[in-house]
Protein: IgGFc-binding protein
Organism: Lingula anatina
Amino acid sequence: MRAWGSNAFLLLFVFARTVYGFGGGCECKATGDPHYHTCDGVTLQYQGACAYNLASTCSHGSKDDRFIGFRILIKNKHPINQEDVSYARAVKVDFGKRTIYMDTAGNFKVDGQVIHDGDLPYESKRIIVNKHSEGGMERLVFMTDLGFKVTLDITRNERGDVIADIPPWYKNAGLCGLCGNWNDNPHDDYATKDGTIVENLSQPIRDALIADSLHQHDPELDLQECEETLANSPYTANTCTDDQLQQAQKMCDLDNRKPLKKSFKSCRPVLEEDGINYGGYIGACEYAYCSGIGHGKSTANLGACTVLKSLSDQCTEHGSKAKKKWKKKLKCFHLF
């Protein structure tokens, strides 16, 4: 249904800002080859070729009547003969009961219906999609009357940058995805889908773990090359043997290993009260151990100790303090 003229986007923007107000929202981006910029200011870099959850509602939600569930999927693809980079090629947005698809070939779909250029701007039931040129590139835009907006900028050779503008009532309301959870804590943006904190792993491994844990199977977006991406991912690869994994679990057992449990006993409730995923450090410690075991046990221990040191630093930052016994008992004392 084409209901509005060329000023439709301006009118919708002014209406949303005047009636609802959405200053202080999040602008999350996937740009370049690509770099992901989260709502809390973290930058992740990963060149996988799959469909990924860029941002979605996933938790308790909000009592705000403007809160509507959404999911933004982004499809990345390698250029021909360039396996070390990837670019956004398509975006799929589920917003409430509506589904919007747009890609770097300039195509639009709304609820499965192809929207032709002659039908733009297209408005239907409180949403609008449009296409225009700006700064030498083509821009595809989806927007709601509540100010929720997703933009796909087509730069060159059908390579895309994606910008998600998320209104402020989604802050602290339980978001997931590469945009992070938007809670003013950048540290927990370095977490896999299951909440495992991987902040202190090396950047390539860390960002691959985060992104590949957020891979989304979607028939409209999946690529054959995604299978190769996942096959080579540290998230899906088992780098520890069963015996080595037991060693990692023993070293990182914050819940039951006495030196760790006692050292962090007073800190744990402080972190959890401040919304820090304490349990996520267990998985991060195990990941670090297994990522280093191929280079020897000392390297594996160093990785695990580094994660535990990060947890200790978090305690200090939040006004608590971990006892120092764990460093000596776990042979980490000489590292710090």
In short: The two ends are 64 Å apart (CA to CA). DSSP finds nine helices and 15 strands in the chain.
